[in-house]
Amino acid sequence: MNYTSLFGYLLGEVVLTAAAFVILIADVMCHRKDDVGARNQRMAWWTLTGLFLAAVVYAIQFAQGNANFADGTLVINPLNLFFKEVILVITAITVFFSMEEPVSKHVGEYYAMILFAAIGMAFLVTSENLLMIFVSIELLSLSLYALVGFQKQILRSAEGAMKYFAFGAVSAAFLLFGLSYIYGATNSLSLPAIAETFKGDPLMARSPVLLIGILFTLVGFGFKIAVVPFHLWAPDAYEGAAAPVAGFVASGSKVASFVALTKFLLLGVAPAAGAATISFPFTPHFTPGWAPVIALMAFISMVWGNLAAITQTNLKRLLAYSSVAHAGYILVALFGAKAWGQTAIYFYIIVYALTNLGAFGVVTALANKVGGDDIRCFAGVWRRAPGLTVLMMIFMLSLAGIPPLAGFFGKFYLFAAGLAADQMQLGYLWLVITAILMSAVSFYYYLQVLRVFYVNPASRGGPISICPCQRWPMTVIALIIFLIGWYPTALLDWIQGFLQRV
Amino acid sequence: MMVLAEIAPPTLGLYLGFGALFFGVGLAGVLMRRNVIIILIGVEMMMNAANLNFLAFWHYNPNPSAVMGQMFAIFGITIAGAEAAVGLALVIAVYRHFRGVNVDQMNVLKG
Asked: Which of A312, A333, A359, B73 allows an S-S link to A317, with CB 3.0 to 4.6 Å?
């Protein structure tokens, strides 16, 4: 390993770290006397500059070859770089959303924390080593706890952050404990090396130490991706956090965690999958492994997430439960054949993250002007902000999965991958049927939100002016969702191409 | 100590059993106590149990020159410290609103 080349491969993260420190110092040294709004905008532009420079660095790295440092601690390949770019885009959109109104008076710290979280995500998608995965999950989580609790003077924010932290800390302990057992069973930390140990030892896939380790690790990942029963923090944290932060937690952190989980399960411990199939006519077949656990989590997430979303009266909580349900849909594709399942998951997680970010953008732009983020506050917003309501319709219909929007094709690929699982024996048909039924249920609450936006009698007040810093990113997201919906194969071919070059 | 080592020579199983016990005690503290600070202590115990596992697995490893387990334990200790720092900061933020650190008080967000 050569430190100069290591620095070259880490340049993107180095740029982000430097940007975070520059922001912290510049805020204290140069802009102390400006008022909060002006400082907020200046710091936001500093952050965007840092993100742009890092994006350029990653784009240049695409042209260079693949690299693998220190036992998979840092793996550079087109797929990982692509996900780093996605994370930078999500972070940049979050920064645009927080530009109009400062989340708190500690402006520099806010943007530095966002950048630290982005660094955590970038490392999470780029490492194939258990140690590095753990460290980056913690960097990401610790930054997000602080971001959720950033509005110290607001009670909801402090309570949401405390609940997020309590669940997060316990699940981090579970994750660490699980990783220690996996290390003990396989004697290695890098995912390819762990996969290698299965080849020499046919009993490895049944080793109880390994299975306990995987189970505990899944608790940790289950918290990060918010699946039932580890979802309890999500509604409270989303409701307590400022809307841009909630969007960031719901999109960026989900993308990074799903990529890491997919790699962990399909690259590392795939032979220990086991089975939880039900073949026709009703003959259940269970083998111990991670498949029964994932299948159970997917099943209850889809059912509980969708049913609980129906009763919500707060838009952020509704989006939280919808994200629980979506995490369930995504898990279905983990059973697919390796290449197909991976493609479907990567496709859907990008589409889902962008759509959700857009929906939280609408909440950001409107909540303060309509007097809260309860759903009833948005009654008749159609007359006051028509453009934004059209965008909200696109986001909601894409989340519901209505063609020709991107969400439909995303779900189609996920469920197709689930059907193709189990050597085409339709063993996971029961999960796919649940997923399709529950997507139908989800139409009800997505359309309910749109009904309030469009049909319900208008609240008083004139037209709402939306800051261009929020309008343009949301428009771009909606356009991307449309374009992916019309040409889904474009993104699909990209991802498949990247997967072949891994 | 000599006598104890003769009766029960330390084995990997003993260390793992102790780690699991330690983890269980921490988890019980997290689930049963209502004070946030005690919950934090429970989490620290759970993480240290995992660190102990890493060291035990490393020590009984057929190839002790690979120091991955030791490395992981050091990172684990550091991260547990960082987590405690963030946790205590949040405890202060919560205390300012609720005038207490009991989780039963934190029931504003629900549904």
From this structure: A312
Within 10 angstroms of residue A134's Cβ, the number of other Cβ atoms is 25
Q: Which two tokens stand for residue A164?
A: 């997020």
With respect to residue A329, please indicate whether it lies within any of the assigned structural domains: yes
As a three-state string, the secondary structure of B24-78 is HHHHHHHHHCCEHHHHHHHHHHHHHHHHHHHHHHHHCCCCCCCCHHHHHHHHHHH
ipTM of the modeled complex: 0.93
Is A259 inside a domain boundary? no
A415 part of a folded domain = yes
| Pairwise CA distance, residues A271 & A273, whole Å | 5
Interface check for B65 against chain A (CB to CB < 8 A): the answer is no
CA–CA distance, A77 with A257 (Å, rounded to integer): 18
The C-alpha angle A266, A269, A273, rounded to 5 degrees, equals 85
Determine, for residues A173 and B51 on separate chains, whether the beta-carbon distance falls below 8 Å. no
Distance from CA of B109 to the nearest CA of A (A): 6
Q: Does B30 touch chain A (CB under 8 A)?
A: yes
The answer to whether A219 faces chain B, any CB pair under 8 Å, is no
Right CATH for B35-111 from 3.30.2350.10, 1.10.287.3510, 3.30.9.10, 3.40.50.720: 1.10.287.3510
Minimal Cβ distance to B68: which of A145, A163, A189: A189
Q: Which among A131, A188, A312 has CB closest to B71?
A: A131
Q: Left (φ > 0), alpha (ψ -120 to 50) or beta: where does A422 sit?
A: left
Task: Answer whether B90 touches A (CB < 8 Å).
Answer: yes
pTM: 0.94
Residue reference for tokens 């009800």: A444
Extended beta strands in A409-500, E state: none
Q: Which residue of B has its CA nearest to A170?
A: B43
A484 in a domain, yes or no? yes
Which residues form the domain of A402? 275-284+302-502
CB of A149 less than 8 A from some CB of B: yes
pLDDT tens for chain A, 502 residues: list them: 678 888 888 999 999 999 999 999 988 887 777 788 888 888 999 999 999 999 999 999 888 878 888 788 889 989 999 999 999 999 999 999 999 888 888 899 999 999 999 999 999 999 999 999 999 999 999 999 999 999 988 889 999 999 999 999 999 999 999 999 999 998 889 999 888 888 877 787 788 899 999 999 999 999 999 998 999 999 999 999 999 999 999 999 999 999 999 999 998 888 888 777 787 777 788 888 888 999 999 999 999 999 999 999 999 999 999 999 999 999 999 887 778 889 999 999 999 999 999 999 999 998 888 888 888 888 888 888 888 999 999 999 999 998 889 999 999 999 988 888 766 677 788 899 999 999 999 999 999 999 999 888 876 778 888 888 889 999 999 999 999 999 999 888 888 888 888 7
Please count the structural domains in chain A. Answer: 1
From the CA of A215, how many Å to the nearest CA of chain B? 14
